[in-house]
Amino acid sequence: MTIDTPLRILIVESRFYEDISDELLAGAKAALEAYGAEYDVITVPGAFEVPGAIAMAEDASQGPAGRKYDGYVALGCVIRGETTHYDYVCEESARGLMDLTLKQLLCIGYGILTVEDEDQAWARARRSEGDKGGTVAKVALDMIALKKALRGGNHG
C-alpha cells in the first residue's frame, strides 16, 4: 500500500501485565512502521482505562493545539482471576471501545486480550505466534481505509 501523507495513529497501551504489553506494543509498532504510518504511544494502568484515554485523545484533538489521529490501537491484557472483576473489566473495556466506534465513528483496532491464563496470553501476544498487536494495528489501518472509501476519499 502507498499513502500520500502518513496516517497518524495513537496506540493506547495498558501496562498491567508489562511483559505481555511490551510484546503487543512491539507487534503494533512493527505493523505501523511497515505501512509507513506515524504513531504515538500513551500508557494507562489497565484495560479498563483504555476507552477513556481514547475518548480523551479524541476530545483533545478538537482543540487548537490538539493532535488529530486517523485511528487508534487499543492494547492490553486481562487474565481471569478468582473474582468477577475479570468479567467487568472485559465487558466494560469492550463496550467502551465499541461505543467510541459506533458513536464517534472512530477506527479502533481492538487488541485487549481476554484470556484464562498467562500461557494463552503469550500465545496471542508473541509476534512469532498470534501477533495480536500487529494484527490489530492492521485492523485499524483497514478500517481507516474503509472509512475513507465510504466517504469517497482515496484508499490511503
TrEMBL record:
Active site per the UniProt annotation: H85 (proton donor)
Residues engaged in binding (2S)-2-hydroxy-3-oxobutyl phosphate: E82, T83, R124
Reaction catalyzed: (2S)-2-hydroxy-3-oxobutyl phosphate + 5-amino-6-(D-ribitylamino)uracil = 6,7-dimethyl-8-(1-D-ribityl)lumazine + phosphate + 2 H2O + H(+)
Molecular function terms, GO-annotated: 6,7-dimethyl-8-ribityllumazine synthase activity
Keyword Acyltransferase on entry: no
Assigned keywords, A-Z: Riboflavin biosynthesis, Transferase
Pathway annotation from the record: Cofactor biosynthesis; riboflavin biosynthesis; riboflavin from 2-hydroxy-3-oxobutyl phosphate and 5-amino-6-(D-ribitylamino)uracil: step 1/2
Family: Belongs to the DMRL synthase family.
Listed name of the protein: 6,7-dimethyl-8-ribityllumazine synthase
Source species of the chain: Asticcacaulis excentricus (strain ATCC 15261 / DSM 4724 / KCTC 12464 / NCIMB 9791 / VKM B-1370 / CB 48)
